[in-house]
Write a structure and sequence with these properties.
Number of strands: 0
Number of helices: 5
Oligomer: single chain
Helix content: over 70%
Mean pLDDT: 79
Radius of gyration: 25 Å
Shape: elongated
Largest sheet: none
């Protein structure tokens, strides 16, 4: 089991060598090219991690402490409202044998909350993919 990911990088580099280097190349040439590819992939991964790290550090160094927690606050508030309306109040009604009040969350809540959660999830996924990914390039319009 490859926990470090180095094996997968080495396998990828070997596959690249096998695919693009002519069969008449010697094993020494193939090994040198494979090592060079591995170094380039490792450098790319290090740059990607450094970029992600700098983005997280800059987000955490913002002056406004609420900005860091705004999206999670919306998500957790929505979860709290859902819990109250669909779990806690029905449970209290059941325990005290009282009829359930006619509570429901408005349709606009569901549209807004699922929209925020969906955008947040996609945004976090794209952030993890890094700035060079095709998705980020499509969103930002960069080439």
């Amino acid at each position: 089991m490859d926990l470090t990911g180095l094996g997968s990088v080495a396998d990828f580099a070997k596959d690249m060598v096998d695919r693009f280097i002519p069969p008449q190349a010697t094993e020494v040439e193939k090994a040198a090219i494979q090592i060079k590819i591995q170094e380039l992939i490792d450098k790319r991964e290090a740059n990607l991690l450094e970029t992600q790290k700098s983005v997280m550090i800059s987000e955490m160094q913002q002056e406004d402490p609420f900005t860091k927690r705004a999206r999670p606050m919306v998500v957790y508030s929505g979860l709290l409202f859902i819990f109250l309306v669909h779990v806690l109040i029905p449970l209290i009604s059941f325990i005290f044998a009282k009829p359930m009040p006619g509570l429901s969350l408005p349709t606009d809540f569901w549209y807004a909350w699922t929209g925020v959660v969906g955008v947040w999830m996609v945004g976090r996924t794209v952030e993890k993919m890094g700035p060079g990914s095709t998705v980020v390039k499509a969103i930002t319009g960069s080439k």
